[in-house]
Q: What sequence folds into this?
């Protein structure tokens, strides 16, 4: 993960005291969806908006895209007011659900959105070909979207967000509806896009997704900004040191325990690390694809190896 | 056929009045929008912020958004609308229309006296109503569905301007409607031509020959629920073999040819016409020959479209025609010409007399220059007989126009253009000759028939009117859908279209021209069984209350009706059905009206779309 770009680059998205209050017809406040949010997203970083449902993540994104109007404060994208349509030339947006026209096929969908960016026929054609290959939907490009699975729809949704080769990509819950492979592909793609110099603003309530890809995050709760900073520094626990080593004998482990005790340290745990379920699943699937018919017996191996309990 | 008085106005004077009215309306709407938008924004924000927002929206509209309109984006939106419409199976409307035509024989009166009118009226009305209904549904539900399904999110987050979204839908649905209209028009044309096509035969043995004149008379075979009387004269046979023409029946006649010893009856002629009437200005002289300010007489009919002149008096109806030239009436290669007058006079009989006999009248061609002596001004009377409900053709040959010599008392020929037409102007005076009988007429009932127009071109002009109605309905539907949900937008469109169709009627009730008062007065009259034309008999206070309530309602309705486009002005099917050419003037007015609503509604739609939160 890169944080340097995020701290030094040009400000792409800026909110100043951004507030959104939903009111009834008579102007009475109903819900304070966002309260005085101040944020900067800089060129070349992946910025994550994190928070539980109803925390104001989607409202922030809708305000930045001009889908909602702020009650007070300002939302600026590329230095322009969010209501200014011309800013959209440089933005790609993937909504929470892929709100696409189901009667179009993948090619027609991308062609339609390409036209909205005033792209020439030749450029559209080449861009559509590249994007369809990128999302691996060449085999289904002539099928109407109503025949697509949720994951396929999500992928074509992403392709439409990239049709204009945007500088800023806004992703609302990008991994929703994707299987673990799709989720990993999406996360890899997000990182790749960042590496190509794109700025990515994403919101998610899936902590693992945010942790995996984001350079900086803002945690929102009940419309208020609770935490803002680089993921590494936010997750780093300064008073705990983690040691990982391979092929230690029980005697060596015992010696380490003693050394920690002699130096007035407190051993919190000493264990064999576990992988994440996501990594395990991906490993199994990839292994299975490379060795058809092979069955892993992880359960038997687990029964033979008792875990080392922490003292 | 009834012709609206406004049709006689020149395009220039109509345009001036219309643009003044429209400018007032546009100003009213702009100020209304600004006040409403400010009020709503001020409720949700502060007044200063509201003012800034409105100023910013207006500035952005004219400085940024309108100048950066993209045809490609707009066409992309149109294409999407077309795909959406076609995949929603709108072409089923065409299938429905064809089904209607296939089973038309079940409900159309095949023995009607004017089958051309009947068929044309039917296909044009069916096309109009089906198309307008489709336009309403398509336009009212599309945008609300996009908002409901949130597909609009992926549009408005692209560099698409609000007016491009609006225009895209309008153009897309108009394209679908145009395709349907072209299909309907093609099928309709075939239906009418095929429906009117028929063949008669003549039984040679049944012809009755007059030895002295050499004329043969008889009846054709019964085909298409009618037969024709005919007279043939073999002595007049020309190179083509034409020997006669049948009498008119069901609005048409047939030429009869003698070929290879057989009498051949050709296909019908005269049922699909595009007569080009040259209208004059109508004024009246009373029974003493004095100019009448009030027009003609009222014979007691509630409908005051026509006035009447009294028979066997000096009561006269005068049409003054302008811009007449000899070339309009003289056929190429001939020195002589014909002044073709057509009369659609009504007859009111105050005595029964011989009910089957026609009422007699006379036509005088008059020089409008009043400084001339009456001897120099008037032609000799040209007699005619009026047929009720039938267009009488009076073709006055130039060589038959005469004047009585004041000295000898003999009739002598005069030159129409030298002696009677003054600076292109000519008066035609019509009098009723029969005592105690009356002729009824309106301005459009007597006209000079200019060279015939093309029926097909006339039909296209009529379809152009339907197309413009469809465009207006689409504009209204899309406009309402920018701020209302689908079903409410649909109802609003229906209400505006209905209001536009009945704008004239609402105006007549409001001004008192249509008797019976407003809705409350009408209910009271119904309950108390009082006739619509009588004074309302109630207490003064009660009448005052009723009239006040009706007045408020009718004023509101009339104001609303003025906002709506007058759809009745776009309906030209009667002209086509009755065989009258649609004047270019009318098409121009419709085009101007459509363009005005187009710009106003696109502008209003833009401001509404940019002022609303799409994701709210």
A:
């Amino acid at each position: 993960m890169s944080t340097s770009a995020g701290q030094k680059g040009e400000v792409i998205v800026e909110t100043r005291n951004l507030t959104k209050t939903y009111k009834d017809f008579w102007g009475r406040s109903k819900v304070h969806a966002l309260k005085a949010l101040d944020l900067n997203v800089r060129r070349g970083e992946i910025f994550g908006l994190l928070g539980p449902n109803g925390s104001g993540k989607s409202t922030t994104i809708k305000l930045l895209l001009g889908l909602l109007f702020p009650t007070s404060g300002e939302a600026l994208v590329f230095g322009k007011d969010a209501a200014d349509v011309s800013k959209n030339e440089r933005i790609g947006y993937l909504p929470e659900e892929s709100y696409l026209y189901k009667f179009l096929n993948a090619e027609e969908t991308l062609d339609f959105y390409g036209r909205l960016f005033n792209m020439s026929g030749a450029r559209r054609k080449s861009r559509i070909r590249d994007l369809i290959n990128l999302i691996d939907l060449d085999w289904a490009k002539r099928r109407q979207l109503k025949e697509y699975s949720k994951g396929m729809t999500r992928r074509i949704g992403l392709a439409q967000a990239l049709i204009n080769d945007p500088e800023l990509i806004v992703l609302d819950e990008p991994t929703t509806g994707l299987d673990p492979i799709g989720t990993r592909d999406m996360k890899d793609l997000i990182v790749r896009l960042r590496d190509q110099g794109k700025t990515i603003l994403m919101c998610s309530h899936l902590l693992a997704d945010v942790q995996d890809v984001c350079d900086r995050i803002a945690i929102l709760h009940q419309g208020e900004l609770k935490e803002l900073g680089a993921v590494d520094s936010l997750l780093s626990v300064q008073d705990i040191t983690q040691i990982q080593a391979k092929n230690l004998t029980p005697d060596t482990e015992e010696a380490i325990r003693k050394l920690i005790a002699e130096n007035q340290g407190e051993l919190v745990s000493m264990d064999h690390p576990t992988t994440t379920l996501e990594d395990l699943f991906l490993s199994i699937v990839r292994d299975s694809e490379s060795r058809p018919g092979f069955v892993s017996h992880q359960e038997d191996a687990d029964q033979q190896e008792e875990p080392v309990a922490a003292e | 056929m009834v012709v609206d008085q406004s049709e006689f106005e020149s395009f220039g004077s109509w345009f001036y009045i219309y643009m003044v009215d429209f400018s007032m309306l546009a100003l009213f709407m702009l100020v209304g929008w600004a006040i409403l938008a400010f009020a709503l924004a001020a409720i949700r924000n502060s007044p200063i912020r509201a003012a800034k927002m409105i100023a910013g929206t207006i500035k952005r509209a004219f400085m940024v958004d309108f100048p950066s309109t993209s045809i490609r984006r707009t066409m992309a939106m149109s294409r999407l609308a077309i795909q959406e419409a076609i995949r929603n199976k709108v072409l089923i409307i065409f299938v429905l229309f064809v089904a209607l035509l296939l089973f038309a024989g079940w409900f159309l009166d095949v023995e009607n006296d004017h089958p051309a009118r009947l068929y044309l009226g039917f296909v044009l009305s069916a096309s109009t109503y089906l198309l307008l209904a489709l336009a309403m549904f398509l336009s009212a539900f599309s945008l609300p569905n996009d908002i409901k399904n949130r597909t609009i999110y992926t549009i408005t987050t692209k560099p698409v301007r609000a007016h491009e979204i609006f225009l895209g839908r309008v153009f897309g649905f108009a394209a679908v409607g145009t395709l349907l209209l072209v299909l309907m028009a093609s099928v309709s044309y075939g239906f009418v031509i095929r429906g009117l096509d028929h063949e008669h035969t003549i039984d040679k043995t049944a012809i009755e020959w007059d030895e002295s004149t050499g004329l043969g008379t008889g009846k054709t075979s019964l085909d298409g629920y009618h037969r024709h009387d005919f007279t043939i004269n073999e002595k007049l046979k020309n190179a083509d073999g034409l020997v006669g023409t049948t009498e008119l029946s069901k609005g048409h006649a047939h030429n009869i040819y003698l070929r290879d010893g057989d009498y051949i009856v050709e296909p019908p002629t005269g049922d699909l016409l595009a007569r080009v009437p040259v209208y004059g200005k109508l004024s009246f002289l009373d029974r003493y020959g004095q100019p009448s300010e009030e027009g003609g007489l009222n014979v007691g009919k509630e409908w005051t479209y026509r006035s009447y002149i009294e028979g066997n008096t000096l009561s006269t109806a005068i049409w003054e025609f302008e811009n007449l030239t000899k070339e309009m009436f003289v056929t190429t290669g001939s020195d002589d010409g014909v002044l073709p007058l057509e009369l659609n006079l009504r007859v009111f009989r105050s005595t029964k007399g011989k009910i089957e006999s026609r009422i007699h009248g006379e036509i005088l061609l008059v020089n409008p220059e009043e400084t001339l002596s009456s001897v120099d001004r008037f032609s000799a009377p040209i007699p005619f007989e009026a047929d009720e409900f039938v267009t009488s053709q009076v073709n006055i040959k130039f060589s038959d126009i005469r004047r009585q010599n004041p000295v000898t008392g003999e009739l002598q020929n005069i030159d129409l253009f030298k002696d009677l037409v003054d600076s292109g102007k000519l008066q035609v005076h019509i009098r009723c000759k029969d005592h105690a009988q009356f002729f009824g007429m309106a301005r459009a009932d007597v006209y000079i028939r200019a060279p015939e127009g093309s029926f097909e071109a006339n039909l296209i002009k009529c379809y152009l009117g339907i197309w413009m109605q469809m465009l207006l309905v689409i504009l209204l539907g899309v406009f309402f859908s920018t701020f209302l949900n689908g079903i409410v937008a649909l109802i609003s469109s229906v209400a505006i279209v209905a209001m536009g169709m009945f704008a004239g009627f609402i105006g007549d009730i409001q001004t008192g021209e249509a008797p019976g008062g407003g809705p409350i007065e009408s209910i009271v009259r119904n309950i108390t069984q009082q006739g619509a034309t009588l004074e309302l008999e109630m207490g003064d206070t009660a009448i005052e209350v009723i009239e006040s309530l009706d007045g408020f309602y009718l004023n509101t309705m009339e104001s609303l009706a003025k906002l709506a486009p007058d759809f009745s002005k776009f309906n030209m099917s009667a002209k086509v059905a009755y065989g009258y050419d649609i004047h270019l003037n009318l098409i121009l007015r419709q085009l101007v009206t459509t363009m005005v609503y187009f710009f106003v509604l696109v502008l209003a739609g833009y401001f509404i779309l940019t002022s609303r939160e799409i994701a709210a």
User: Anything to note?
Assistant: The domain at 4-235 of chain A is CATH 3.40.50.300 (Rossmann fold). The beta strands of chain A are 11-23, 29-42, 46-50, 72-77, 80-81, 91-94, 168-172, 199-204, 216-221, 224-230.
